[in-house]
Amino acid sequence: KQGIIKDWIYDPRGKPVVERMTDADGEVHARRLCYDPAGNLTHEFDTLGRRIFRGYNPWNAIELEATPATLDEQGCEEPSLSFYGRRRSGAIVQETSPSGERIQHRYNARQQVIFSEYPDGSEESFRYFLDGHLHSHTMRNGQTRVYERDCRGRVLSERLFTAGGTELSWRNCIYRGDCLIEESNSEGIHIHYEYDGAGRLVEMQTSDGSSLRTESYVYDSLGHRCKTLQGEKGCLGINIETFNVQGQVIERRKEDQQGSVLFIQQFAYDDAGNCTHTTSFDDEGLPSTVIKQYDCIGRLRRTIDPDGRETRSLFDRDQVDALGRSIWTETRIDHLGNKHILRLDVRDRVSREEWRDQMGVLTRAVDYLYDPRGNRTEERHAVIHCEGIAGHYTIRRSYSIDGLITEERRSADSGRELI
Question: Is beta strand 212-219 parallel, antiparallel or unpaired with respect to 113-117?
Fold first, then answer.
């Protein structure tokens, strides 16, 4: 519908080797794929020359991966390699990052991780029930999270202990059939859930011992949650959402118990599903619209606020990282000429943010670091004051195996640390 044309070329084995996309402006974006004799995807090239290489062991499990990189003057690629030592079953027993750091893993007979050792000397261990569900997880900071489960593997209780065995927090759950009906925790919060015949949540009651809060939910014929009543019979407000046939929200409004409209917002989408217009109405019913424009791959290129002020987003690959690999940079320029610059790494994660004024002077910067699972583990903030003096502070985070934050440390130049 947007004039985008996609076509593919296949090899005699029926595997795609070329994928081309032509946008409405006639620009061609191509991807070339190469396979080994066993049919494993080994090379992937895009229009910009970025390459992903994968090496396999005799059992067709990935043991080496090279992420996108650039070519030097001799046409040789500067690789960013991650090596994976694997068992025949495919379980990773050792990971080696581009910087040479190694992470060791040990597994049980079910090929579940039971122990991990990290370059900084910290350790992580896991224990499982006989049915394979997680029983306990000892994190790198020494804290242990212990689970009790029913015969279907659902969590009945969850408790967090310090390295010395002191209980820090707990959470209990009660089920009826397939549905969670009650939940309570160490903070004194008690939640009761009610469901309809289709198993959809229709009411949630939250109590902290001194007050009770109720939320009720109503669904349309397609199963979308179209109405949320806050308080008893909506005495604290009613949130209503209207959907189109694609399941996209086209109107969102809030009413009081008497039906008077307190807030209303309307949305419009393009054929690719991107939200292009957001219209809000004030108390007098006057509209204000935010307009957004996207490129052919869904990246936001232009935003116009209700006052006509424009913010543009520019994308380029002129920057390289410390290993010489080409990386994307997004520059957002507001109507005053201030710039918000986001530098991405080879996995398209934000590695650095910069804020610059109209003269290009740096006023603030943040650098981000990630662990092998992709969790953001460190933020390094630098603030430039008007006198030119920079203030620094760092945020470090630890995560559970589920990707949940278990600890956050904030430290400043003074050496004080908040945990």
Answer: unpaired
